[in-house]
Amino acid sequence: AGMLRGLAGPVRALGSAFEKFGAAIQADKAYTEILSRHREILAVGGVKGAIDSSCFVAPSASLIGDVSVGPKSSVWYGAILLGDGGKITVGEGSHIKDRAVVSGGCSVGAHVVVGAGAVLGAKVKVGDGANVGGGATVGDGATIAAGAAVAPGSVVEAGASISAGQLYAGSPAKALRALTAEEKDRLLSAAQAVMSLAKVHKAENAKDFVEIEQDKSDLKWGEERSVDYDGSLGLLEKNPRAQVW
């Protein structure tokens, strides 16, 4: 087995060489497949993001150009950070949820949650502990102060200022009231909950082929009917280890 694994690389290289040779002798009649491989972190103009090793970046996320993400933060599935139009910074313990878009020049503080599908325009500043609800839109140059909350689906106008500790909602977003102490605690708890979930996703996405195949095997075992169920029908046990209730 070890010898075969050692031969794998040279055999692949030989196959690639034969393919290139075949394409060369076919000249303009050769078919060349253009491979477009998605990359979570994409350098633009030689500028590449600085992502802390403790972060979770989903495989389908896109961090483009000058993007800095602090420790224990996460960028979820389908999220896009467009650092090709200005540096983007995301502070410690902050989370950019699924399909959110963050434009160039944005600054996101620590322990912030930008909800699923939210859009931050260019040069938006979000203070520590703030929360931008799912589907909300924050216009260019707007400022969301520390501990503020923008309700889901709201539209913050370009250049607007959202006051600290206040709840804003509507289109355009208007101040509704001050957040209660309980609500402020809930915002912090929400950020911590996302952090815990991000650790699980980071571990799952880091699994290699062997681990993934083992998971598939374990799932197949678990899908078998329980011994008691099969026994009650007089059937042979398909899997004596299965204990599904």
Notes on the protein architecture:
The chain is α/β, with parallel strands linked by helices. The chain folds into 3 domains: 1-36; 41-184, Hexapeptide repeat proteins (UDP N-Acetylglucosamine Acyltransferase, domain 1, 3 Solenoid); 212-245, no CATH class. The chain has 4 helices and 20 strands. It has helices at residues 2-26, 181-205, 209-223, 227-232, and strands spanning 41-42, 50-51, 56-57, 62-69, 74-75, 80-90, 95-96, 101-102, 107-108, 113-114, 119-120, 125-126, 131-132, 137-138, 143-144, 149-150, 155-156, 161-162, 166-169, 174-178. Strands 1, 2, 4, 6, 8, 9, 11, 12, 14, 15, 17 and 18 form a 12-stranded parallel β-sheet that branches. The chain has an 8-stranded mixed β-sheet with strand order 3-5-7-10-13-16-19-20, with helices on one face. A hairpin with a 4-residue loop joins strand 19 (166-169) and strand 20 (174-178). It is elongated. The protein starts with a helix and ends in a 13-residue tail after the last helix. The model is unreliable at 235-245 (pLDDT under 50).
